[in-house]
Structure of DUF2075 domain-containing protein:
Amino acid sequence: MIVYSSSVADFKEAVDDNKIAVNIEAAFIEKLGKRPSVSEWRSWNNSMQFMERIIRNSRVADDCGVMIEYNIPATSKRIDFVIAGQDDEQNRNFIIVELKQWEDAWSTEKEDIVKTSINGAVRETTHPSYQAWSYRQFIVDMNAAVYSQDVHAHSVAFLHNYREKNPEPLKAKQYEKTIAEAPLFLSHETKKLQDFIFKYVGKGKGMQLLYEIENGKITPSKSLVDHINALFEGNSDFVLLDEQKVAYETIVALAKKQDRKRTIIIKGGPGTGKSVISMNALGGLLRHSLNAKFIAPNSSFRNVMVEMLTKQSSRSKMRTKSLFLGSGSFVETENDQFDVLIVDEAHRLKGKGAYMYRGDNQIEDIVKSAKTSVFFIDDLQRIRPDDIGTIEEIKRIAKMRGSEVHEYSLHAQFRCAGAEGYLNWVDDVLGIQNTGNFNGWDKAFFDFRIVDSPHRLYELIKDKQANGHKARLIAGYAWDWTSPKQGNPNGQIEDVVVEEHDFRMPWNGYAIRESWAIHPDGINQVGCVHTTQGLEFDYVGVIIGNDLKYDSETGALYSDYKDYKDVTGKKGLKNDPARLNSLIKNIYKILMSRGMKGCYIYCRDQALQAYMKERLAKTTE
């Protein structure tokens, strides 16, 4: 969606009359149905004065097209400024201009990452040239009017308030490749920017091209499909087995029809391969030229999936990442805007009032927005009161929206060394559901142990990691988590404390929270359910805190409200101990099912530790 567009002639006139910010504001309200913030208005009023001088002095034709605040479909990202036209050889071109009002910046050792002052504090952010490049790449990859009509896309970053330093951190050697792809212009380089703009669009005739871009069909280009195919090829993390292949082919076959609205529900417990199927479905649907996106409520899970798939440079990650969205991204999307939306971990979808979610029901948002919506779900993995994702609720919404429901179940166990008996045992031991499973599992293939100290637990995990296995220490949310504002940006404070064993470790750090599961520093921090749900490791060590205890008189597990520290997770449950207990037990089942080869546990409540040992002793090899 283009918020504001005009010819260069009209743009210059609006700036001359000091009406440009007012005009953009009016278009913003009309197109988006809300008022811009004061900071946005000021930014338009300031930056457009600079851009008008650049455009006027570049002497481009008056019938070049200008668009301001182009909203990238299904994201909150808006491109600041685009100018379109033709060059001397009548090639059709457009230039994305990423505008920044920065005055200072600092380089970092991270690829395409810099530091600058944002909202009163120095923070890490992407290099302006990288940001401009990523926006261009999205349009080239997904807008058929661009990639199929021989339209040439360019991008630049313009920091009109920025005076060059010596040496200049934004032009450091590690950013040279990015700047070559999206040139960077500072305050003293306006003549160079003017020449760049005239070179590609100076001959005008750009209004029709803007119309085509705005109305172009959003569907993957062959270049993007080839890129995704290359990522899947030879990647053993995403190989489909047995019933996973059946589910995958079913999703693709139904989605390809596009003859009516459909909702597909794929049910499966931990380790049944839901994520393997969902990721493959994304690739398969793109290959059929369908506008498909992968949705996951948990940002940690999304980012680790991208990391596992790409394992390459930040450009590959960004290009791939545009296909992965959060579950709150569809409040304002149009009906059937997407061909297919694939939702993994659908049990974590939210309702009205959830943190930073502006809508009423994420299930309804998704079903509304796609011709075919696919939900991968496990009703027993909801962990917070605001998790509304249930099979029943999906069916209700689908019926309300006139969407045909298809339902499938996954049964085969591909995690925990295929030890379905182990997961049944966990269900029974935690009192989640009666499985009557006392027969155990093949302990030669899945290693489960109960250890007597958190130190021993950590030693086992460190040893597995040192020997080439993916291993992590994880725990229930039974300790407070010190925030970055309190001096804990990346696990500097040891929050997870077991006094009786003089054991202290930090929670997963804020700075690496979205990649903790695969980050090298992750082994020295304790993960929680929010950084592990949906993911898997070779071995996990689970600390069961005082939020879950065992009553030896009644033989029941119960939860302690004051020892459960997830404020959002226990909101409204102070007087509902049964529901609180159910959610906390779900959390521990999730944690105890993250290991493919083994799981070791330590229970802080000694009655629970004794109960677990007693139950384990009754299992057989």
